[in-house]
């Protein structure tokens, strides 16, 4: 399992995009001010991404005002795995709390499953729907 992204789930996507792109001057790898999702190069194998908070809440069928998680999903830690179904089954068997079973997110180009750690933080495991040849992966 490789930590591939830290994803900030933001309320004001446009302001955050401008902050990371224009103030911090991080190179934009994907997305723009209106895309509701963007990735930035932070000179690491792990990338920084921002996502409109409601997009993740809708995708996971959760309510951002959940009283049990008053600060729910302000960020997510994303791990890339070789096989989402196998990894998810092992995580569940080992006691991880499943939020969303493995499924294809064709609009995102990934197969993913979502979990929560004991403190309620959102974790995602994913792999590309179209496998990336080992020679083309970031080193």
From TrEMBL:
<dbReference type="InterPro" id="IPR004360">
    <property type="entry name" value="Glyas_Fos-R_dOase_dom"/>
</dbReference>
<dbReference type="InterPro" id="IPR029068">
    <property type="entry name" value="Glyas_Bleomycin-R_OHBP_Dase"/>
</dbReference>
<keyword id="KW-0560">Oxidoreductase</keyword>
<feature type="domain" description="VOC">
    <location>
        <begin position="2"/>
        <end position="128"/>
    </location>
</feature>
<dbReference type="InterPro" id="IPR037523">
    <property type="entry name" value="VOC_core"/>
</dbReference>
<dbReference type="GO" id="GO:0051213">
    <property type="term" value="F:dioxygenase activity"/>
</dbReference>
<dbReference type="Pfam" id="PF00903">
    <property type="entry name" value="Glyoxalase"/>
</dbReference>
<protein>
    <submittedName>
        <fullName>Catechol 2,3-dioxygenase-like lactoylglutathione lyase family enzyme</fullName>
    </submittedName>
</protein>
<dbReference type="GO" id="GO:0016829">
    <property type="term" value="F:lyase activity"/>
</dbReference>
<keyword id="KW-0456">Lyase</keyword>
<keyword id="KW-0223">Dioxygenase</keyword>
């Amino acid at each position: 399992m490789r930590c591939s992204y830290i994803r900030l789930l933001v309320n004001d996507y446009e302001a955050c995009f401008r902050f990371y792109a224009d103030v911090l001057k991080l190179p934009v790898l994907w997305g723009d001010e209106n895309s509701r999702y963007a990735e930035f190069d932070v000179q690491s194998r792990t990338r920084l991404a921002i996502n409109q908070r409601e997009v993740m809440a809708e995708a996971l069928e959760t309510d951002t005002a959940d009283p049990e998680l008053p600060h729910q999903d302000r960020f997510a830690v994303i791990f890339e795995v070789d096989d989402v179904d196998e990894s998810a089954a092992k995580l569940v068997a080992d006691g991880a709390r499943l939020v969303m079973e493995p499924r294809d997110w064709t609009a995102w180009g990934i197969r993913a499953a979502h979990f929560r750690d004991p403190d309620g933080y959102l974790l995602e495991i994913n792999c590309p729907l179209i496998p990336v040849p080992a020679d083309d992966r970031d080193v």
